[in-house]
Amino acid sequence: MPRKRAFAPAAPAFDQPLSDLNITPLIDVMLVLLVMMILTLPTVLHKVPIDLPQGYAPPSETVTHPLVLARDGTVTLDGAALSDAAMPARFKALDADRAALLVMRTDPDARYDRFDQVLAEVKRAGITRLGFAGNEALVE
Question: Which residues cross the membrane (predicted)?
Fold first, then answer.
């Protein structure tokens, strides 16, 4: 007796157009765009506050006060040693003098955290007439 063969159900005929929309590529593109926005927006929105000069004309009798940060972290102002405790009072006095211009020169081997501490004291005193010297090699 011949065996009966089990046939799979008949596949549907594809003679009619599919009415279902394939949204998988659309979802893939949207996810890629979402990931790109997540990665790029924080860098675009990150702001560093910088006080730029607003057309300030220095007085003709400008007096330059050199502030030197040495390699070992010692600070001198006008050639005299300046302690951390005396910094705020000396910087406030410089800020009160309209003819004073503070010029900061830092040894290239000085520690950055010490430079940051001194610069923070300058900012706390409200000094806006500040220049940096010794960076000529970095301008190239």
Answer: 23-45
Cβ–Cβ < 8 Å for 73, 113:
no
Structure tokens at 115: 């430079």
The side-by-side arrangement of strands in the sheet containing 130-133 is: 80-82, 75-77, 63-69, 100-106, 130-133
- Give per-residue pLDDT as tens, 53-78: 676 565 567 889 999 999 999 999 99
pLDDT of residue 128: 87
In the chain, where are the structural domains located?
A: 63-134
Alpha-carbon distance values, 3 to 6, 7, 9, 36 (Å): 9, 12, 18, 61
> In which residue are the tokens 């600070």 written?
75
Contact 98, 59 (CB under 8 A): yes
Which CATH code fits 63-134? 3.30.420.270
- In the chain, DSSP assigns E strands to 63-69, 75-77, 80-82, 100-106, 130-133
